[in-house]
């Protein structure tokens, strides 16, 4: 056995343990880095010559053993836009590559990360602490994502257009003890016009002498043109074989009012329109169902009992905040109580995530060994679920790293002793001539 071979082997051991120490140092330094994945050390032996009767020393090499697929602990964050992935998968992110035409230009390469400490920057983009821009699927007007293309998520702070009222729902009981001499019952209701302005209306109920169990409804809109009174319609209860106290007929409509056909089980609806300055606005007053004790009824009592009166439509809304839902929908919220889904955040998985190429800022790139990137909704096709308002901690275990540190130190020291001993033996060999 060559003494030089022994020294070379020991020196390779020193190099390998130095690299292992470097991996440990990197892990400890990033023990608090969001989304960091630790690097273990895999020692590989290389043999010079080995038979059943002879073995010559070779060398050892330290190779990195990446632990990209081992999850760190999700930690709650005060940032409502922070996200962690519970399970397999990565966020798709983009890296800026200068400016073009007054806007950001992004690197054509695709990057992936588990660092979900996202926040909105001054340009409206969602960016994590390492400067990577979150990508998602654009959503249409109904909130459905377009899964054919990913793009950087940018929050639009434009106003939410007002929605004119189209339906008014009424649930109440008209007193059956009222007579033709009883005072009319006036119910105010507010609706929104096409500009988002709140417009007052009144529903006036007047009991009729004939036919019995009938009321005349008058709808008035003071700000409508050309006249405040939109028309009248008679509402009859308990006739035509329908249950007592339930709506049985809508008849005698005047003005712009029209009642639906009286068929048991069908909706009892009064349709009308009003012009608040932007043209005719079609609306419907929903009174429940013909022959059913729901919505508007006429039962015993001397007073009008209003159970529910509400209308749809919303006023003009200004940007209020942005939030992320459990399914990855990025919703823009407005101060009128409305929200709109603008994007959906997908989760990207790989066959072998440990073979991804590491980049700066806890980012990764696809390699041939990692397999193709599979982009899918969260919690589907093997991808993990999103934990909103949390970030993924580093998967480094300090106690384990210090144990490895002790072992690496001892192994390094042992290799230095071999080098020292081999050097002394070489010196003795050289001194044999004296």
UniProtKB/TrEMBL annotation:
Q: Where in the cell is it found?
A: Bacterial flagellum basal body
Keyword Ligase listed? The answer is no
PANTHER family noted in UniProt: FLAGELLAR HOOK PROTEIN FLGE, FLAGELLAR PROTEIN
> Residue ranges of the Flagellar hook protein FlgE D2 domain?
181-313
Its protein name is: Flagellar hook protein FlgE
Q: Where is the Flagellar hook protein FlgE/F/G-like D1 domain?
A: 84-156
Question: Where does the record place the Flagellar basal-body/hook protein C-terminal domain?
Answer: 389-432
According to its UniProt entry, what is the function of this protein? A flexible structure which links the flagellar filament to the drive apparatus in the basal body.
Q: Where is this region: Disordered?
A: 53-77
Q: Which family does it belong to?
A: Belongs to the flagella basal body rod proteins family.
User: Which is a Pfam family this sequence falls into?
Assistant: Flg_bbr_C
Q: Which UniProt keywords apply?
A: Bacterial flagellum, Cell projection, Cilium, Flagellum
